[in-house]
Amino acid sequence: MKPRRWLVFAYAIVLTAAGSPASAMSIAGYTVTTYQFPGAPITGFRDINAAGDVVGYYQTDAADFNTANALRIVGGVPETINPPTSLTDRRAFGNNDAGTVVGSFNNSGSHGFVLTGPTFTTYDAPGTTQGTTIRGLNNPGDFVGEYDDAGGVQRGFVQLSPSSSGTFQTVTVPGAVSTTVRAINDAGRIAGFYADATGALHGYVSHDGLAFTTIDHPDPAAVSTLVGGINNDGVLVGAWLAALGSPESQPARGFIRDATGTFLPFDLIGATSTIPIGLNDLGQIVGEAVAPDGTHYGFIATPIPEPTTASVFALMTLLITRRSV
Q1: Which domain holds residue 130?
Q2: What is the CA radius of gyration of the chain?
Q3: What pTM, to 2 d.p., does this model score?
Q4: Total domains present in the chain
Q5: Which CATH number does the domain housing residue 308 bear?
Q6: How far apart are the first and last CA of the chain?
Q7: Which residues contact 153 (CB under 8 A, 6 or more apart)?
Q8: Inter-residue contact 102 to 113 (CB < 8 Å)
Q9: Considering only Cβ atoms within 10 Å of each terminal Cβ, which end of the chain, N or C, has fewer?
């Protein structure tokens, strides 16, 4: 791994304009904030840490993924964080509470990156020189993703931090034609999805990268299920599709799977497609939503706290007092 310096550009934050397609996006029980990078038809959020800092990407040409730039928003201020050695397709996929960011870029093939403070480090899975993408990391510093093996097969991986054992582990779901690991929590539990021989996608969770629990959305119309994030409570977020293919080619329906295994719908009103991808332990969810005009917005959905017993009692007392006056 080669340490380098980041090229970081800060911009004043531009909130979604009132009256825009994204300003009407909402979902019951949450306060939804949407964001579009200035001049970019595609913006997507991928992860959020405990401080509410967000990472993702923006794409300046909707038809060319090579125009993607890595994005970080800290304290409401967006930054472009492209590696100096990158050429195209720069994306940030994960961040932890220490502010470390992981992602990928393209330079004669895909390579992973780790941003720690101002220092950029390139990462390729052992035995490979290209085809590596880092998708997520936890607070201990372990990170996960996928790489292409010598035969061109996509396999998932877990890279434990040097402060742990530093072990690299390949993750392949039995019977899968491709596997990706999208997230890892602090206990080392991983989540992601795999493709079967028909091309259908299936979500999964695993405690050790060896035994897997398949996660398929129970809706009868669901053909594919993608799991994007897991938090320390074991809550999952993701999306399901009604046809073979990717979320980029068709509407996606978002979901939350709580710690008991119950699926809850997560579709933003006003969006034609909702893809929840990351979440933190506070229940904040980030992802990508598509407006009717085709513009992609990053979103943060923050749970609206339920009234406590004390606040309900205070409200009832106030109402009774007012009624008696």
Answers
A1: 3-324
A2: 20
A3: 0.89
A4: 1
A5: 2.120.10.30
A6: 73
A7: 177, 178
A8: yes
A9: C
